[in-house]
Structures are given as C-alpha cells and as structure tokens.
Amino acid sequence: MRPFFCPLEPAIHPSVDAMESRCVGWLDRVRLHRDERQRARLVGTNSAEFYCRFAPSGDEASLEVAAHWVYWGFAFDDARCGRGELSADPSEFLTMAGLMQRALEAPWDPVCENDRFVTALQDIGRDFHRCATPVQVRRFTDAHRTWLFGVAWQLANRAHGRMPSLGEYTAMRLGSAGGPPTLAMLEIANGEEVPAAEMDSLVVRGLTEMAILVASWDNDLQSYAKEADEANTDQNLVNVLKAAHDWDTEQAVDEAYVLRDQVMSHFLQLRECRTRRPASRALHRYLEGLGHAIRGNIDWALGAPRYDDIDGIPAQSGPRHPLVGCTDQPTTHRAGPLPIPAIAWWWGLA
Fold it and tell me: Is the pTM of this model over 0.90?
C-alpha cells in the first residue's frame, strides 16, 4: 500500500468512546448478528469511530443515530450484498431491497417482523424522524434508494460474469459503495439543514460526488490486497483497469492512484473556490464535512479489521497487509477532465 494524497488534517469527535459503548448496546438490542462471531465482526467495523471522524463537531445524539446506520449498513452488506445469500441473485435482491426501502420510508408500522434488518432499519428511521428535519430525512431516504440501486447494478454484473468498463464502473460506484446515504447524514449529524438552492446546485452536487468517488476508490485500493489473497476477481477499480487494458496488477494500481489523485486535486480546488463565495453556515459545515469524510475514511481504515484480517476479526499476530496513511504530495500533476463520461462534467464547474 502507498500513502493517499490527502492534505487535510485528521479529526474525531471527543465523545467517540462513549458513543461506541452505547452503539454496541444498541447492536445487542436489535440483534443484527446471529452468533458471537458475527457480533465480533460487526463490532470490529468500528462504525462509531468511522462516523465520529466524518462529523467531529456534530451533535452527539444525532451522530449516534448515524453511527447506528453505519453498523447496520456493514451488517447488511455482509449478509445480503457483498457475499451473502443474495449476492449473485439480483432479482431476489431487488425484491428484498424494495421492501427494505419502503420500511425505511414508513418506519412506524411493522413491515416484516421476522427480518432483523427490516426491524433494525425501522428503528433507525424512527430515530431520524425524531432528530432530523423532514427535508433531511427525505434526502437520506432518497440517497438510500440510490445506494440500493447501485448494489443491484453491481450484483447484476456479477450474476452475468461481466466486468464493467471504467466508465460504467465509475457511474455504478458512485452509488454502490454506500456513499450517498453516508454523506446524506452529514447535515443530520451537524444539526443544520443546508438550503435547497445550495445543496442542489451543480457545484455542491459535484463536490459530493467527488468525495464519494475518492472514498470508494480508496476503499478499493485498501481492500485489494486482501481480495487478491482470497482470489477475488470481482468488480474493483484495479480489476476493472486490468481487464480494460490487459495490464498486470502493478500497472493497474499505478493508474488507479493517478485517477484517484486527479479527482482529489480537483475536489480541493473546487471546494476552496466555493467556500470563498457567500454561503450559509450549514453549507460551510457540510463542505468541511466532505473533507472530513475523505480523510476520516482513510484514518478509520488504518485500524479497521474489515480491510485486512480474516472475516473482519482482528488476528492475534497482527494485520497481514498493514495500511499506510496520508501524504501532502499527489501521485500526479496531470490536469484536465478524466476521460470518463459519467464524471467529466465536474471539470466544467466553477
């Protein structure tokens, strides 16, 4: 692994330890796990730490609900997306996901009492209605639908044994990595609603997507060594580049870092330009949070067993593939739009 270009300071909420303790209590109450091994894997996601890095000055109660969803998301991904029972059956996944999404949108009445993921998600949904504004809740539920659609797209590729092109993978990864709902919780955790005219502007939309893509590509690179050990040739930025260009792993990794750093550089430049212009306090905090999300995702992965150890449970002998942190120097100074239609429009923003 190489350090990631991220000239942003690390930050974390001061109450992270207390929140993690309460979140584990919530996990034991909703019972997302079936046995102690699953519980250890879920606790080992360090999800409270994860979101405490995204919103280091957030409202503690709202931030805790956001952390509940992160725990839920990792458990759901393991059980039904990444390698679970529906991971190669997109039609069955969509049937289940449609019910899941509706349960979130109307969390007051039981939808499927024998499904632990539905009941836990409804618990989270009710808490969001108590701590967030109606606009924030709607933004989160819409983002949640985007994520489920992205996962279904990824599962459809897997079911057909199809490796997408770089352009297709990029468009899919903007949703499938869980970035939309994760970042939609930023303004909830911060306790400030961003006005629609600002949040829906092309610049803020573009910055949000850049943060999602950088973090998702970082996850691809962080997890690649483990996936290679497990002979996993599924959809991943490195595997996509290898298939597209008939490259070896080193060539594909080199290009992955270059692509990632080009997006990161543009994000930093565009965010700086936007923060110089008049904006609400809520937008300034949101844009700051996008930077915390990129840096926090890197720092969290340094200690998260999920990207290294067997079954996400820490090994006694230490990590097999120690991750590295950040650098202030990009891999490349290559400028201009990436040749990827789904995101080329970002370079026209100002």
Answer: yes
Give the residues across from 326 on adjacent strands. Answer: 4
- CA dihedral over 133, 146, 48, 52, signed as positive or negative: negative
Closest CA to 125 of 98, 144, 106: 106
For 32, half-sphere exposure in the C-beta direction (CA atoms, 13 angstrom radius) is 31
* First-residue to last-residue Cα distance in the chain: 34
How far is Cα of residue 154 from the mean position of the Cα atoms in its chain?
A: 15
Estimate to the nearest angstrom the gap between the alpha carbon of 40 and the chain centroid. 21
Two tokens at 239?
């595997």
**Domain annotation for the chain: domains and CATH numbers:** 4-348 (1.10.600.10)
Q: What is the pLDDT of residues 194-215, one digit of tens each?
A: 999 999 999 999 999 999 999 9
Beta strands in the chain (DSSP E): 4-5, 326-327
Helices (H) and strands (E) in the chain, counts: 15, 2
* 86 has a pLDDT exceeding 80: no
Q: Model confidence over 133-175: pLDDT tens digits?
A: 999 999 999 999 999 999 999 999 999 999 999 999 999 999 9
DSSP-derived secondary structure letter, 344: G
Predicted local distance difference test score (pLDDT) of residue 312:
53
Amino acid at 158: R
Region 280-307 average pLDDT:
93
Whether the CB-CB separation of 312 and 306 falls below 8 Å is answered with yes
Residue of 131, 78, 133, 127 lying closest to 104 (CA atoms): 127
246-256 as b/e: b if 16+ CB within 10 A: eeeeeebbebb
- Are the C-beta atoms of 185 and 47 separated by less than 8 Å? no
Closest by CA position to 49, among listed 19, 9, 6, 10 = 19
Share of the chain above pLDDT 90, in %: 82
Cα distances from 23 to residues 113, 297, 304, in angstroms, run 22, 19, 16
Dihedral (C-alpha) 29, 33, 39, 41: value to the nearest 10 degrees?
Answer: -140
d(CA 237, CA 224): 9
CA 275 – CA 270 distance, rounded (Å): 9
> What is the rounded CA–CA span in Å between residue 314 and residue 244?
35
